[in-house]
Amino acid sequence: MKGLGLAGASLGAAAAAAPVFHDLDEVIAAGDIKSDANANLKRPWWVAQREFKNPTTEVDWSLLQAWDWNHEPSGTKDWHPRFGSLKPELCPDTALRGRIEQMQATHAEFAARVSSYNDQQWNAQAPGWALRDQALSSGVNAASRGSVPFRASPQTPEQRGVPKWTGTPEEATNMLRAAAHYYGSSNIGVVKNDTDTKKMFYPSRARFEDVDEAYEDGRVKVLPNSCQYSVHFVARQSDEYSKRDQSRQSGVSRYWNNPIIQARMQTFVASLGYEMVNAGAMNMPMAVLSGISELVRMNHSCTPEWGTYGGYAPGMVTDLPLAPTKPIDAGMWKFCETCATCCEICPGEAISTDKEPTWEADPWNRVGVKKYQQRWPICIGFGCGVNNCGKVCPFNTKGQGSAFIHTGIKAAVGTTSIFNSFLATMGKVFYGAPSQPRDEDDFAAFWDRDLNAWPYDTILGAGSGPNGGV
Amino acid sequence: MRMWLIIGLIAGAAVLGLVLWLQGKAVSVKWYEWLIGAIGLVLLLFTIQNFAGSLAELEGTAANMFLLVSGLPAIILLAVAWQLIARRQRAS
User: Fold this and answer.
1) b vs e for B14-38, b when ≥16 Cβ sit within 10 Å of the residue's Cβ?
2) For position A469, what pLDDT does the model report?
3) Per-residue pLDDT reduced to its tens digit, A115-138
4) Alpha-carbon Rg of chain B, whole angstroms?
5) Across the strands, what pairs with A294?
6) Residue A415 CB burial class (10 angstroms; 0-12, 13-18, ≥19)
7) Do A404 and B59 touch (CB under 8 A)?
8) Torsion sign, CA atoms B64, B69, B74, B80
9) Which residues contact B78 (CB under 8 A, 6 or more apart)?
10) Which residues does A195 contact at the CB level (< 8 Å), separation at least 6?
11) I want to staple A329 with a disulfide (CB 3.0 to 4.6 A). Which of A48, A66, A239, A429 is the partner?
């Protein structure tokens, strides 16, 4: 009998680790769909919730203003390096002009070096840059970001002869998440559009008015004030392929997957009898405000589950009554103070190396946010690819099937910061000092890989493997 | 998950087998020897999981580091537990 008990103990221990209901509490929790906006996707226990509009990145809402690239009212006209608009010769501050010119020189030098390297690799048809790798990248771009319509027009409930869908706001949020999960988005976040959060919309691209329906006024999308909620959908990106940047095997990108998710969600909501307009606010601040992620040192958004590769969260506005989701604290923002691994791989030192974030913003960073101030004149369009820093973030880990140590470390970081320095150091010991994570041997092996052993790469959300599901 | 069910079965059966064998040989085990052995076993399982998981993540360096950092101490602890028991048996 003792023997049976001992054998049963190990069987029970192994079974207890399986992701099923362990007790009645968990069964009952699933029934909180109507009252808990996060009922159908519980975060790990070390992820705490904060109050609305109070993320781990401090925001002074009284100072924060609407902001846009190369935008006179925002004070960024000719002052932002994006879209090639930075004109330091117009800067009256001699010291600032000198810094800008130095950053531009750094950018130009390294951009030339990266471009030359890419040309060299292409000419040599090197693994990762050969024709079939280029073709792989081109194929990814087949569904572009421009394919989501301004508004969807499916069959409405009225046309079907039924009333529009109704339910509690919490139920609505859970329902959107369930649909998004089916469509390829692993999580959603909801923000109430108020005077403060509306500052996260690009003023040159969207404005709110008292109108019955959304319409386009030239480049500007006019949104009804009835669209009180912004919904942001996580568009994940393969961590493995991101490590292959800057080869052409890194082409599978969240930017090419998200139109599929957004178009599906837009039609889903319209089919329920509500509006969902393709006019979203800035994805990163909204991801942070809605609890999808925290901001990190490199100015990306970083999710507790997948790191910076769960961090693209494009949004749309809707008049479907929803329950907003709160910002989170998983210890990641705090971890950035001691880690700074992303700084080591940035070829142009565009990422701030300050130990702590600061309120002092250069013209190309927003006033009113205490963060690591990015040196954008070096970063934007650098040529290293937007993922050079992102791919070395220690929070980038796969879900099921990955090393358990990641869960333990995330739990420790989410609970206390006293081990942060030690853990950051151990990360470099175990995974090597930051460098290009994948080399030509990896690029060459890509085309010969055993597909039975390789996780299936898909945006199919309703799966259960490491890449299909949480 | 299936792998861990099997590992759990094997580990449970191995521990059961060890206990029965020790009883059959009338070998006594002190509480601290049980503790050292249990810690060693947990470390060993931890090493196996992280080694396999790191390989699945295509992180060969990390996989090898786990063998060194946690695998070696696991083997040492298990060996210490074994030797403590064996030497006390010989002495008695």
Assistant:
1) ebbeeeeeeeeeeeebeeebeebbe
2) 42
3) 898 899 999 999 999 998 988 888
4) 16
5) A302
6) middle
7) no
8) positive
9) B37, B40, B41, B44
10) none
11) A48
Q: How far is B79 from chain A (nearest CA, A)?
A: 23
Q: Which residues pair with A48 in a beta bridge?
A: A329
Tell me if B59 and A13 make a contact (CB, 8 A cut-off). no
All residue ranges of chain A with pLDDT < 50 are 16-19, 24-25, 27-29, 461-470
What's the confidence (pLDDT) of residue B72?
97
Residues 6+ apart with CB under 8 A from A232: A188, A189, A190, A191, A280, A283, A286, A287, A290, A292, A313, A314, A315
Q: How far apart are CA A170 and CA A187, in angstroms?
A: 15
CB contact under 8 A, A397 and B50: no
CA pair distance A442, A238, nearest whole angstrom: 15
pLDDT tens digits, residue range A410-435?
Answer: 999 999 999 999 999 998 888 876 66
Nearest by Cα to A313 from A327, A324, A302, A325: A302
Among candidate residues A45, A329, A37, the one with its CA nearest the CA of residue A178: A37
Do B12 and A432 count as a contact with CB atoms less than 8 A apart?
Answer: no
Determine contact, residues A323/A286, Cβ cutoff 8 Å. no
What pLDDT, on a 0 to 100 scale, did the predictor assign at position A283? 93
Specify the pTM.
0.87
Which helix (DSSP H) or strand (DSSP E) does residue A328 occupy? strand A328-329
Q: Are A323 and A280 in contact (CB under 8 A)?
A: no
Beta-sheet pairing, A301-302 with A294-295: antiparallel
ipTM value of the model? 0.85
Contacts B17 to A, Cβ<8 Å: none
Contacts of B13 in chain A (CB under 8 A): 7, 10
The letter for the amino acid at A90 is: L
pLDDT of residue A72: 77
Is the separation of the CB atoms in A73 and A361 below 8 Å? Answer: no
Which among B15, B16, B62 is the nearest to A431, CB-wise?
B62
- Distance (Å) from the C-alpha of residue B33 to the closest C-alpha of chain A? 19
**How far apart are alpha carbons A223 and B44 in whole angstroms?**
59
Cβ density class A164-186: b for 16+ within 10 Å, e for less: eeeeebbbbbbbbbbbbbebbbb
Chain A positions with Cβ closer than 8 Å to B? 3, 6-11, 13-15, 17-19, 240, 397-398, 401-405, 429-432, 438, 442, 466
Report the residue of A6, A429, A457 to disrupt the B interface, i.e. the one with the largest count of B CBs within 10 Å.
A6
**Of B8, B11, B53, Cβ closest to residue A401:** B53
pLDDT of residue A113: 83
- Are A6 and B4 inside 8 Å of each other by CB? no
Bridge-based pairing state of the strands A220-224 and A215-217? antiparallel
Instruction: Tell if the CB–CB gap between B46 and A404 is shorter than 8 Å.
Output: yes
